[in-house]
Amino acid sequence: MSDIVVKDSNGNVLADGDSVTTVKDLKVKGTSETLKRGTLVKNIRLTGRADEVECNTKKVKGLVLRTEFLKKA
After folding, report:
1. Helix, strand and coil percent figures for the chain, each rounded to 5
2. How far apart, in whole angstroms, are the C-alpha atoms of residue 1 and residue 3?
3. Which residues are CB-contacts of 58 (< 8 A; sequence separation ≥ 6)?
4. SS3 for 54?
5. Three-state SS for 40?
6. The whole model's pTM is what?
7. β-strands 26-27, 34-35: how paired?
8. What does the DSSP 8-state code read for residue 68?
9. What is the tens place of the pLDDT at every residue in 14-52?
10. Residues 6 or more apart in contact with residue 68 via CB below 8 angstroms
11. What is the Cα–Cα distance from 52 to 65, expressed in whole angstroms?
């Protein structure tokens, strides 16, 4: 396993399976959807990069979010 530490916008360490909330409205590329501020995203998956996580929402599957727009729930 890699030793990459993934942190949210407040500096909290994130792990696989954590729940996060968005800190601002995010437009999803390729769709007409917008994730509103405060949207809860459950069961995130870490990628090989320290600034990105993968997740699924109710409307968008296979979404990659930048950690600078997330905070641990």
Report:
1. 5, 35, 65
2. 7
3. none
4. strand
5. strand
6. 0.88
7. antiparallel
8. G
9. 999 999 999 999 999 999 999 999 999 999 999 999 999
10. 9, 51
11. 6
Amino acid in position 16: D
The pair of structure tokens assigned to 26 is: 């995010």
Is there a contact between 21 and 71 (Cβ–Cβ < 8 Å)? yes
The total of other beta-carbon atoms located within 10 Å of residue 12's CB is 14
Which bin fits 38, alpha (ψ -120 to 50), beta or left (φ > 0)? left
The per-residue DSSP string of 8-33 comes to -TTSPBP-TT--EEESS-EEPTTSS-
Number of neighbours of residue 15 by Cβ within 10 angstroms: 9
Contact 24, 37 (CB under 8 A): yes
Euclidean distance between CA atoms 2 and 6, whole angstroms: 11
